[in-house]
């Protein structure tokens, strides 16, 4: 939000001219001397009112600046009451002192209580207007900030939902699978039906478990088998998978499919060599090990599995690990235990 306009130099320079003139007109009206307005409008009293308006508005602005930087009291209402009272008292002291000096030094007589009451009442209203402007600006700023925060939260949630939906659908995998079905269909219709069944089973698993936080490892392995059966029909995507598990465990849906897909896309395709991948049970982790021959422009690292790393950090307190040496890479997935 932009800065409050009362702090603008042009407003500080021009507004006292209007407020001081208004005060002068009100005093003439109260004293029933409005008929003399045409004769002595630019009299000495007008300049005194304008000068006082400058002093009062700068005093009110200074009060706003001071209380804006105060951290005490903590209550906004109590701080507002304190600001109004202190501003009124300072205004009364300044107006009373200035008018007393003007009457004694210039007019050579002491002002009476009624005259001081009139000046103090009018200039106190000006101070109150300044404070109310500040308070309304603060409330408006608070409301706008809350609205912006809600809109930002809604935007982030929409982006997160879209990213999750895109990850679940996996457009690249979807189109490649459809292309594989088209390639097989040209040569063998019956085989194409089997590939279509595998494709449907894979996506049925991915989409049916999207609302589940964790699933048994056996279900994830079934989806992985369907995924590999579809990938076998794509050029240079032959994979040899070795599995070895000692006990049942739980896993985040789509973990193995996503990791194997990242491995495939970061490995140089070959007509002759199969991509050998081992999925092993290793104590508190599940290890995925393979001999890497990575592409020049794409490698597998922890950043490639950033979403999974965050999820496992949340559910198990242990993130994914990617260990590598000159010959092979190992992705370590922490096991999830159901209480």
From TrEMBL:
InterPro entries the UniProt entry points to: Sig_transdc_His_kin_internal (IPR010559)
Transmembrane region(s): 12-30, 42-64, 76-104, 116-135
Record-given protein name: Histidine kinase
Natural source organism: Flagellimonas allohymeniacidonis
Span of domain Signal transduction histidine kinase internal region: 165-232
Species classification: Bacteria, Pseudomonadati, Bacteroidota, Flavobacteriia, Flavobacteriales
Keyword vocabulary terms for this entry: Kinase, Membrane, Transferase, Transmembrane, Transmembrane helix
Pfam families per record: His_kinase
One cellular component term from this protein's GO annotations in UniProt: membrane
A molecular function GO annotation: phosphorelay sensor kinase activity
